[in-house]
Amino acid sequence: MEIGDCTxxxxxxxxxxxxxRLIDDYFNSRSSSxxxxxxxxxxxxxxxxxxxxxxxxxxxxxxxxxxxxxxxxITECITSLSNSPVFLELLDVWRELQEEVFFVxxxxxxxxxxxxxxxxxxxxxxxFITLVSTMPIMSPIEFKxxxxxxxxxxxxxxxxxxxxxLPEIFSxxxxxxxxxxxxxxMIKRGISFLIVxxxxxxxxxxxxxxxxxxxxxxxxxxxxxxxxxxxxxxxxDEYFDIAKNAVLQAVDNHSNxxxxxxxxxxxxxxxxxxxxLMLKALNIRQTIDLKGFPPNISxxxxxxxxx
Length: 307
Hints:
This protein is of the alpha/beta class and 307 residues long. The chain has helices spanning 14-28, 71-82, 85-108, 140-153, 173-188, 217-222, 224-230, 237-252, 269-281, 295-303, and strands at residues 6-10, 37-38, 41-42, 48-53, 159-165, 192-197, 205-210, 213-216, 258-259, 285-286.
């Protein structure tokens, strides 16, 4: 898989569903058996914060877990309230209440026990604070935007990876543009993204899936030497670049293992041949319209058409 500051997993594929959950498990599960390497060296998960925002992401506001992104919001609320003069008055009243326990203990003396009222601390405010959304219903994209904002407000004391799955579900064009703008800003802050999407047009390293096989620009460059050596006549590198882009476009537009000839039919013959050989090198079935090709080239392609 080709990785960058922003890595795109294009399309709706079970493989992507499995991969992003394995990555999340690696970073966030102590008992994970998943192994991830960077430059052939095991990735040190302790140096990373990984946040997974699945397609059905929600935020439970009435009961916060240890990993809830709302914990920082609660801490901010407590800090603000504890700096209020009213909180200082509450502490004075609480101390008076602690003194009143003297009279309670006179009643308890016959049991040979006494009561004590603990000090009221700032942290005690947490049990009295409940977060409630101002919107009666939050859509999946609204949850994703909220989670991104909450993560973005946190201090970046580690390398950060955010995984977002299918943000386009129940999303409008304006909401996706808003999401994309926010992602762009966070990338500039050094935050890495792994996004599963079919429609989000964001700059990044794109990976495609065809019949369980991951295809990307790097995988095409790996077959370049063999492909160019097999071309029946000399071809410039720029032809390979054009053919490479045509193949990536073709893979992006098809979910099966057959690439329609119309995808490359509009190109010059040398480019079409290179694209054909590239697809064949990746074991991707395709058809090609041989109309207009010289007999020797048609024969050359026909000999290579059997997988």
